Amino acid sequence: MERLLVTGGAGFIGSNFVHHLVEHTDLSVTVLDKLTYAASRESLAGLPEDRVQLVVGDIADEDTVDPLVAAHDAVVHYAAESHNDNSLHDPSPFIRTNILGTYTILEAVRKHDKRLHHVSTDEVYGDLELDDPKRFTEDTPYNPSSPYSASKAGSDHLVRAWVRSFGVRATVSNCSNNYGPWQHIEKFIPRQITNVIDGVRPKLYGSGENVRDWIHAEDHSSAVLTILEKGSIGETYLIGADGEKNNLEVVRLILTLMGRSEDDFDHVNDRAGHDLRYAIESGKLRQELGWQPQYQNFESGLADTIAWYQEHEDWWRPHKDATEAKYAQKGQ
Ligand code: NAD
Ligand code: TDX
User: Fold this and answer.
1) Band (258; pLDDT cuts 50, 70, 90)
2) Is there an atom of ligand 1 within 6 Å of 58 CB?
3) Is residue 71 domain-resident?
4) What is the pLDDT of residue 17?
5) Which ranges carry the NAD(P)-binding domain (predicted)?
6) Tell me: the pLDDT tens digits for 302-311?
7) Residue 32: nearest ligand to its CA?
8) pLDDT tens digits, residue range 45-92?
């Protein structure tokens, strides 16, 4: 394998993966990205031009996708509409990009017999009770709650069907909540960090008891590369780093790390259909493929992330007012 096509490589996790590839492999990389509101050219700045190329285009456009897939050895598919709250306001781009876009990629890899890795989320499994000792495994039944997670579930089902019916050489991964640099400030952790920088109290949906299983984006990248290199065709791997925390704990930690009182936050309107708890059992990936997360300490990973947003205000500042205006309309 020499040439890799990475869809969504100008987004939060995809750009982290491109940096990871440059550092840890000899692959040449083409990023296919539509550069939606969630993308950032800056996240790819400084990478060697002889190894990383950006093509601006839509994964749902066959005329763009087909020749690009034909010219590469494998595809790692990150491109998606990714924010649950946006999917509650307008599901249409989620259906188009996440379902039709994945279908378009699948038809191209089928036609040209290319290896595909499809990046998905633990949200396809729905949620767990707070006191349930169970975690999600590769055998947990699909039960998505939001238009976003349902569209990702649909894309996973398409990949599995193309493997079984057409022999497409694909793997799937479902990862828990990522944090780290370059995450859009609409998402929970960077929204609260940038609120605190602005002297605004963090906003917790509902009671704040909802649990997310946090993993650093760099650990997600190393897991995806491991699956691409060593995963068995047709298999699904869950990616997680044993990082369960409720939202209240995370907000209190952000406030404390930023030198504010840990009670200096507001409860705001809850998200419709808000999933209670996600938790990943990642034993299959660890035991079968030998992967381990490197960021074992959430507090220090979060402190680094806070420092990154403090140092990169020029990157997020232009988006802050519009992002907060959208939340304000919903009382969030
Ligand atoms: P993001 O919203 O930050 O980035 C998505 C990228 O896809 C953007 O660069 C955007 O321009 C691009 N894109 C969107 N529509 C496109 C289209 N039609 N054609 C081409 N490019 C398009 O998202 P993210 O948080 O980096 O998530 C990346 C992937 O990882 C998604 O598939 C998501 O479901 C999955 N995932 C995310 C998390 C998380 O915590 N953020 C966890 C598990 C899985
Ligand atoms: O202001 C907020 N206050 C708040 O309490 C925001 C934006 C969120 N929340 C809560 C909702 C969730 O319980 O924080 C938690 C995390 O919210 P998000 O960052 O929106 O993430 P989530 O909905 O859990 O989904 C994320 O992880 C799985 C990604 O956005 C998805 O792309 C990924 O699939």
Assistant:
1) very high
2) yes
3) yes
4) 98
5) 5-303
6) 999 999 999 9
7) 1
8) 999 999 999 999 999 999 999 999 999 999 999 999 999 999 999 999
Range of the domain at 158: 3-178+214-239
CATH number of the domain residue 121 falls in: 3.40.50.720
**Residue 245 · residue 215 · CB < 8 Å:** no
Distance CA 76, CA 63 (A): 19
Q: Which two tokens stand for residue 111?
A: 């036609």
What residues does 3 pair with on adjacent strands? 28
Burial class (CB in 10 A: 0-12, 13-18, 19+), 315: middle
Task: Report the number of distinct structural domains present in the chain.
Answer: 1
Could you tell me if residue 57 is inside a domain?
A: yes
Mean pLDDT score, 11-33: 98
Question: With a 6 A CB cut-off, is 64 part of the ligand 2 pocket?
Answer: no
Residue 45 lies inside a defined structural domain of this protein: yes
pLDDT digits (tens, 9 = 90+) for 240-251: 999 999 999 999
Burial 245-283 (b: 16+ CB within 10 A, else e): bbbbebbbbbbebbebeeeebeebeebeeebebbbbbbe
The candidate with the shortest Cα–Cα distance to 32, out of 169, 60, 87, 184, is 60
3-state class of 11 per DSSP?
coil
Sorted by sequence, the CB contacts under 8 Å of residue 123 that are 6+ apart come out as 84, 144, 145, 146, 148, 149, 152, 275, 278
> Which of 107, 122, 127, 219 is labelled catalytic?
122
